[in-house]
Amino acid sequence: xxxxxxxxxxxxxxxxxxxIEISVFRLLLSDIHNQEISQKGSLGEEDFLKVIKKQAxxxxxxxxxxxxxxxxxxxxQEEEELAILKEFLxxxxxxxxxxxxxxxxxxxxxxxxxADFGLLMGQAMARVKGRADGNRTAQILKEKLS
Length: 146
Prior knowledge:
This protein is an all-alpha fold and 146 residues long. The protein has helices at residues 3-16, 19-39, 45-68, 72-86, 95-108, 117-128, 134-145. α5 (95-108) crosses α6. The chain is 77% helix and 0% strand. The chain contains seven helices and no strands. The protein has two domains: 3-86, Hypothetical Protein Yqey, Chain: A, domain1 (Orthogonal Bundle); 95-145, Arc Repressor Mutant, subunit A.
């Protein structure tokens, strides 16, 4: 996925008057532009995905807060926006795939203990490459170490 693809999708959304998509794509393009300015150049694939993941995380956080506040109307809107952003993210790892990666990381370390958690977590996150939630990865790793 590239910036040009998002711009094309924005143009389609404008023609079809899809307000939620228009909002998502404009905000996403703005964040991409700001990131390009801070890096003084165009974004690579990894940086591009980081921007999208950040946008998705913001939606997840907003959904959680709106649910606590009993704002179902805003929850629905954020969920719709999140669904649009998920189209641009790589397919997440299944529970089984994530557990296998963590098992491999733990097996490589001789006699791992909870003191090795940070090191092992870093290795695990490098292997999942953003295709798994850090909290879930940490939870599985802690179960393996205890």
